[in-house]
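Q: I'm building a small set of examples for a reading group on sequence design. Run inverse folding on the following structure and report the sequence directly after it, with nothing in between.
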């Protein structure tokens, strides 16, 4: 549909501009040549060089029509050819030079040879420059995401080591001591055996939770887990709704977006009396936007604790923005935008 609108809309503009300049121009012929020069634009991505050759040739045929701006379509096709086929820039330049010289001859507007050469080279160069700019921007984003992923992985590994070496060690020691004491007492007295058994069970449960926490900290969680998070936090008196779905994201962006939702929901449940919490996910080619709003009452101003500070750091390291604050009437809003 977009291709059809592009071709038909561009052809209509060519006809309109020409009829504005020369109302006596034959309309059927004008419409036919305008549509013909625009049709190759449908191939500008799959066969860009072919599209440029076809558009250039047809524009040369239509150059005999007074005031017909079909050359603009040929120029756009040449730029697209250099943009989508940067490795064949020399071929595009050759086609562009031939077209510029041919157009100058047929339209009787031959200028100095240097001007023709500059114009013929300039068109592909513009497309090539736009492609380089896009590639460099994409490379910058990829490097930033890779660096953020590396930093996050190092932080997770450091935290896992510290938790494993300190908390894990002490919990294991407590459990072993409790088990040894139970064996030494041989089940008597009964109260001591029951207390030591409780210590053994609690320390074992704590060890399991620590291991689960370390597994979660690897960063495997993403927005796909929001449904489970919502089910855990929803109650009879608190309704949490999720609107929108996120398209596939890079793991580091997906994980950061999930952590924002997790922290925002946790804060809404813990620090407000909200009965309605709304999670909205919006995604396009450039960014993922996460918005969490509630209808509760809380403090009048933002006090950044570890949770909000952690959200802000996660978002900022990926080049995004975070806003946290009260809504105009009541409730709170957390909005994060992260480049995708």
């Amino acid at each position: 549909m977009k291709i059809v609108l592009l071709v038909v809309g561009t052809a209509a503009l060519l006809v309109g501009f020409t009829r504005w300049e020369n109302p006596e121009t034959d309309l059927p012929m004008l419409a036919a040549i305008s549509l013909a020069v625009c049709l190759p634009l449908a191939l500008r991505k799959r066969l860009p060089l072919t599209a440029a050759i076809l558009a250039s040739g047809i524009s040369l045929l239509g150059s005999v029509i007074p005031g017909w701006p079909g050359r603009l379509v040929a120029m756009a096709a040449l730029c697209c050819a250099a943009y989508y086929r940067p490795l064949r820039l020399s071929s595009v330049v050759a086609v562009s030079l031939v077209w510029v010289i041919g157009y100058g001859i047929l339209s009787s507007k031959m200028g100095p040879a240097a001007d023709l050469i500059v114009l013929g080279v300039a068109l592909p160069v513009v497309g090539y420059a736009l492609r380089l700019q896009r590639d460099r921007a994409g490379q910058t984003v990829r490097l930033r995401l890779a660096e953020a992923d590396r930093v996050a992985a190092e932080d997770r590994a450091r935290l896992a080591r510290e938790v494993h070496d300190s908390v894990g060690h002490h919990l294991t020691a407590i459990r072993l001591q409790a088990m040894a004491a139970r064996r030494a007492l041989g089940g008597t007295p009964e109260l001591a055996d029951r207390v030591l058994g409780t210590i053994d069970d609690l320390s074992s449960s704590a060890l399991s939770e620590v291991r689960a926490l370390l597994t979660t900290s690897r960063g495997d969680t993403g927005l796909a887990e929001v449904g489970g998070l919502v089910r855990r936090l929803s109650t009879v008196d608190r309704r949490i709704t999720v609107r929108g779905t996120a398209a596939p994201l890079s793991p580091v962006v997906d994980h950061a977006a999930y952590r924002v939702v997790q922290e925002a929901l946790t804060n809404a449940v813990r620090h407000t009396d909200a009965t309605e919490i709304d999670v909205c996910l919006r995604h396009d080619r450039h960014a993922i936007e996460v918005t969490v709003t509630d209808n509760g009452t809380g403090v009048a101003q933002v006090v950044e604790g570890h949770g909000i500070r952690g959200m802000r750091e996660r978002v900022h390291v990926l080049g995004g923005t975070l806003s946290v604050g009260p809504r105009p009437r009541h409730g709170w809003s957390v909005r994060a935008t992260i480049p995708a």
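Residues 2-110 form one domain.
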